[in-house]
Every structure is written in structure tokens, then in C-alpha cells.
Write a structure and sequence with these properties.
The protein is α+β, with helices and mostly antiparallel strands. It has nine helices and nine strands. α4 runs antiparallel to α8, α6 packs antiparallel against α7 and α7 packs antiparallel against α8.
């Protein structure tokens, strides 16, 4: 029999594990948020991030990073550094039965197939446990894979134990609870305008720096092939969120039908464009050394055009909100 804590995955889009997990918890507690601007906020910025693996120069790529935390309404009520895996498994089951929000430290190397880390890289993080089934001998966790996206996945108990044992986090497990009296703040059209301004600033701040740079080690050892692809996948998902956000703004009277349709079509173009960029990025690894330079220059130019298109969309949106004096009050 499957025992759960009642948390359902928020599957409309995925941007990163912690953010999507926290959104899943909040939309499970407050189901009405699933169709509100709170769940589809444009509160993110673009950053040029550098990674340095052992023996390699920095790998640079552009990332869309959430600019808000969804954990402000939670506090930790339990944490443990139990090293005995059997005792830890017993404690996790106990917390789930009590419908607690349970986070367990695992090594993603042993977690799920069809991920960037499976049997390739040792990458530690906290996974969210939604339930377990003793008869089937498995646990249920919120994670993301290439094939099925962010959702609840089953993981065999023995593999779950292996992933836990291989993780050296000091706190093996912790649980959060909602702060008494906490109610998520509504996202307003003023928030959307401010977020749009911050996105524009983050795009302009790069000042012509190339979006992607890799050295020979990166190509030969494929250090960042799947990581870079995942970051492009996240940007695609952010555009899916933006498209839904504009639809909700139209429903609330913040945008006209024509303007909402225009922005939604731009988001669709951006989704297709970032998917094409992802495909091109993967093709980099099949290029010979003497052709990589031109191919990556073309990728940088293409990504630059996508960012320029998004920047124009946000500038137009900012102007529309200002010129129409859009607020929740006058929309109603």
C-alpha cells in the first residue's frame, strides 16, 4: 500500500530542483495557486556562469536563475545526522506517515536513469520524498529526467539506500513545516513589470560576452555536454511559464487579447528557438577540432538573437503596463 504525505508534483514546467519542489509543496497546500500568477512569475534573471572541473579551464554558459525564494514561509522542524541507513529509512517512513515535508540527502549518481548524473557524475543534493510502498519495496521522490520531466518517480528501496549512503551531507534528513499564519503573497502586475525590468538589465549586463566557451578538455571528456543541455532546457521551460503568465494576465484583464496573443506567440518562438539551440549545443561534441570554433561562434550569435527577442518583448510589456496604467484595481 502506498503511503504519501499528500504532496503532488507541479508539472507545468521545471526550472530547477529546489524551486520546482518548493512550488510543488505550496501548490499542494494551496491548490488555487496552480492557476495564479504566483506559480508563473517572471521573477528570474540571466547569468553567465563559469564552472571549473578538475584539470579543465572554465566552461561558460548562460543560465536563467530564479530570483525569488519560495521557502520564506517554511521553517525546519526536524533534522538528523543518523548514519545508520536502516534507522534512517525507518525515520523517513515515519515522517511521511505523519505527512511531513521530507528532504533526504542523496547522491544522484545512483538515483534515476535518464538524468545528467546517472552512473556518470557524483552530485549530491536533497531530494523530496512524497511517499513509500512497503509491498513494492520502493520510495517516491520528486525529480526530473530527460524523458519525462519533473514529476514523482519511484525508486527501489535498495537503490535509495545506496544513494543515501553515498551522500556525505551532515544532515541526512530534515523536514520543514509551514510557518503559522503564512499565506503566499499574490504576484501583482507591478511585480511583473519590475521583474521584466530586471530581466532586461541582466541581458544588457553581459555587454557582448559570448554565451558559451569551452576548452579542449571539455570536448574530449564531455564534462558539460548534458549540464549545458539541461540549462538550455530550463530556459525553454521558463518561456513555457512566461506564455502561461501572459494568458493569466489576459484572463485578469491586465492585457488585451491582442497583446496577450502577441506575447504568447513570441514565447512559442522562443521555446522553439531555445530547443534549436539545445540541439546545436549537443552537435558541438561531434565537431572536429578545426570546425568547433566557427560552430560555437554561430551558436553564440543565435543565442544572442534569442535574448534580443526576449528583451524586446519585455520592453514592450513594460511600456504597455505603463501606458495603460495597469493595476489589479483598474483591471477589476
Amino acid at each position: 500500500m502506498k503511503i504519501t504525505n499528500g504532496i503532488k508534483a507541479f508539472e507545468d514546467y521545471w526550472v530547477e530542483c529546489q524551486y520546482s519542489t518548493d512550488l510543488s509543496v505550496l501548490t499542494s497546500i494551496y491548490p488555487h495557486l496552480k492557476n495564479e500568477l504566483f506559480s508563473f512569475s517572471n521573477e528570474y534573471t540571466y547569468e553567465l556562469i563559469g564552472y571549473t572541473p578538475k584539470g579543465s579551464q572554465k566552461f561558460y554558459n548562460v543560465e536563467a536563475k530564479p530570483a525569488r525564494s519560495l521557502r520564506d514561509g517554511f521553517e525546519t522542524e526536524y533534522r538528523s545526522n543518523i548514519n545508520d541507513t536502516e534507522k534512517l529509512i525507518k525515520k523517513i517512513r515515519q515522517l511521511v506517515r505523519r505527512r511531513k515535508y521530507v528532504y533526504v540527502g542523496i547522491d544522484l549518481f545512483y538515483s534515476l536513469p535518464n538524468t545528467i548524473t546517472w552512473q556518470k557524475f557524483h552530485w549530491q543534493h536533497y531530494t523530496f520524498v512524497t511517499g513509500y510502498d512497503r509491498k513494492k519495496d520502493e520510495f517516491y521522490i520528486l525529480e526530473s529526467t530527460f524523458t519525462e520531466g519533473f514529476k514523482e518517480y519511484a525508486i527501489p528501496t535498495e537503490r535509495f539506500k545506496q544513494a543515501i549512503t553515498s551522500c556525505d551531507f551532515e544532515n541526512k534528513v530534515f523536514s520543514n513545516k509551514l510557518i503559522k499564519g503564512y499565506v503566499p503573497e499574490e504576484v501583482t502586475v507591478e511585480d511583473i513589470k519590475r521583474n521584466a525590468e530586471n530581466i532586461v538589465k541582466s541581458i544588457e549586463a553581459r555587454d557582448g560576452m559570448p554565451m558559451y566557451h569551452m576548452d579542449d578538455d571539455d570536448y574530449e571528456n564531455r564534462y558539460f555536454e548534458e549540464l549545458g543541455g539541461q540549462h538550455l532546457f530550463i530556459i525553454m521551460n521558463q518561456q513555457m511559464s512566461n506564455k502561461r503568465m501572459f494568458s493569466i494576465m489576459n484572463e485578469k484583464g491586465y492585457l488585451s487579447n491582442d497583446k496577450a496573443g502577441e506575447y504568447e506567440r513570441t514565447c512559442e518562438e522562443l521555446i522553439r528557438g531555445w530547443n534549436a539551440a539545445k540541439i546545436s549545443f549537443f552537435k558541438l561534441y561531434s565537431r572536429s577540432a578545426d570546425t568547433r570554433g566557427g560552430f560555437i561562434d554561430a551558436l553564440n550569435t543565435y543565442v544572442e538573437s534569442l535574448l534580443a527577442k526576449e528583451k524586446d518583448m519585455w520592453l514592450d510589456c513594460i511600456s504597455y503596463i505603463e501606458n495603460h496604467k495597469v493595476t489589479a484595481e483598474n483591471a477589476a
